[in-house]
Amino acid sequence: MTIPRTGARAEPGSFRDPANRVFHLGDDVLRGLDERAAREWRALTATDFFPPLLAAGKVCATEPVDPAPATVGARWAAVLRHERIPFVSHPYEWSFAMLRDAALLHLEILRAALPAAFTLKDGSAYNVQWRGAEPVFIDVGSFTPARDGEPWAGYRQYCQTLLYPLLLGAHLGLDFRPWLRAQVDGIEPDQMRRLFGGARRLLPGVLTHVHLHGAMQRRNARASTADVRSQLRAAGYSRELALATVRGIEKLVRRLEHQPAASHWVDYQRTCAYTADDRAAKERFVAGALADGPRPRLVLDLGANDGRYARLAARHADYVVAVEQDPAVVDGLYRALRAEGQRRILPLVMDLADPSPGGGWRGVERASFADRARADAVLALAVVHHLAIGRNVPLPEVLDWLVGLTAPGARIVVEFVHPEDPMARRLLANKPEGLFPDYRRAEFERLLGARCGITRRLDLPSGTRTLYAAVAGG
């Protein structure tokens, strides 16, 4: 592959480890390594454990670039090229089962590395991404030689961004997503300690990883890292003990389970108002709109529910991101996709009226949903009325948002639910009369046509819903 010579852009979320930095250059994802990191990379590739992880897809595909392109800067001793993840997501957009699988992948990799005298510098949930329903570890720069007497440096990160959120869900039934969205470094032990007092201290994993962990942090608050390592070596802490600790955490994580409360949306395809004729016509329309033009690289299915149309879209596109607000629905969809070995549909939990903002350092360390979503096609099926009526978002702003999620010339497939539709009437019944005078088909069509070129329209047989296919900016 030829590397472009201009336009390298540093990844905003990769600045925390000065030994290596990730860059984007055209469609390539590159990682610059300093002298020490380059030596460790060469040692890593010579181990018996790392090549099998690459071959199994558990670690993102990585290869050296020689010669290194000057566009990433002269300071790097070596440059690697990684596979490009089709869509970068954040842990606060994952379901419980997704977070648990990400946590288990971390431990599996660490368990393989320790006997070969390697460890992971980090334990962050952000070091995992997804190929559809398959987790993949992306932070190759996190591998480093292990030394006897040194604890896993990533343990605190692992607890705060993976284990603690899982404990919240499994033991207390709490939604971990707001916690992770609010704090890029995850949940602090002191925050957890306040939630797990009294008899809750005895719940699996809590005493060791919340209370004892927090006590150790407080006791060593003024000690240097070197002092702590010296104390551990003197106490006989070894790589074998570290490996036993990892196995214990893995056993705990596998036992953690959370069943989200049932909701109306879990069985929506059976209970919704669509007739069989409506559903068949809708599927034909969506398939035709996606097949009309170049094959989309990325499709967003907004309000995806159980993934019916995401699966349809996957027949016509390289990759589909299925966004749904209900965690129980997304968890069920993820488990089904994982069982199928599906690698082209990524399910995410997100409130479309409150999509993920930018976060972390300067608000760009973790990119917002809008900044990540430059889709070639967007499906907005049975979602506009929920935003416009249910959440009081003006129709012009709904359409501006949809267009803003697309790449130039992208296709938009959108469904307008008429005011007389049973679902629209149900939503309107909870609102003051006359609050939405502009919520009419003619006005929606006018607004859509002002922003896009409408290429198709179809009234569903029931007569209260209309589908539109449009080209953004047309």
Automatic annotation (TrEMBL):
It comes from the Bacteria. This is Methyltransferase domain-containing protein. InterPro entries: SAM-dependent_MTases_sf. It comes from Micromonospora citrea. Gene3D superfamilies: Vaccinia Virus protein VP39.
